[in-house]
Amino acid sequence: MNRNLSVLILVLVAGLGAGATFFLQYATAPHISAEQRLIESRNLLDMLLPGSYDNQPLDQPLALKDVALSSSTLLGGYLATVGGKPSAVILRSQTIGYEGTIELLIVIDVNGKLLGVKTLKQSETPGLGGKIADQPNPWLQSFIGKSRVDPADSGWALKKDQGQFDQIAGATVTSRAVVSAIHDALRYFDEHQPQLTGSGQ
């Protein structure tokens, strides 16, 4: 009898512990989810100027998923609007660098000008291609204001390849990959602007 009672008490204690753990996870899950969304939102939207959007772009994903381009892949995107009118398109792009994949965030205004580029993920060589993830990043900032036609297609290359852009020192492969991915994104935007901004619906 004592043994049965001990087993019963043990089962009850274990059940109470499991129930308390479940309740705690259930109660805190919305808060954790909200915090994760806030962090993701800040990470994805910090290149948009204050006042340049008044919607929640993450709630307006674009119908993009694994769109293969010439040198990169578009993983997805979002639309920023102000007063109900499109103001910018945010594209997530993935390309192959020297050590592996590089994931970029590329922000383009409705006129096709680049508002900003940042690295979300990378595995490049520290101190060389890994500099692509530095924040702030003067090399990535040098692309701001460029568009598909400025420079012309032939200019979207490194200077050592007869293009217009400097490279990250010691990181030719990384630099080429990023320049090509940015050019891909601008070209895609130019060719699909009505669908991306909703003005073609």
Task: Describe this protein's structure.
The protein is α+β, with helices and mostly antiparallel strands. The chain has two domains: 45 residues; 141 residues. It is built from three helices and five strands; from the N terminus they run αβββββαα.
Note the beta-strand portion. Answer: 15-25%
Q: What percent of the residues sit in helical stretches (DSSP H or I)?
A: 25-40%
Number of domains: 2
Query: What would you call the structural class?
Result: alpha+beta
User: What is the average of the pLDDT values?
Assistant: 88
Biggest sheet record? 5 strands, antiparallel
How would you sum up the global shape? elongated
Distance, first to last CA: 75 Å
Element-level helix/strand string: HEEEEEHH
- Helix count, per DSSP? 3
Spans where pLDDT lies below 50 across 5 or more residues: none
Strand order of the largest sheet: 1-2-3-4-5
Strands, total number: 5
- Mind telling me the C-alpha Rg? 23 Å
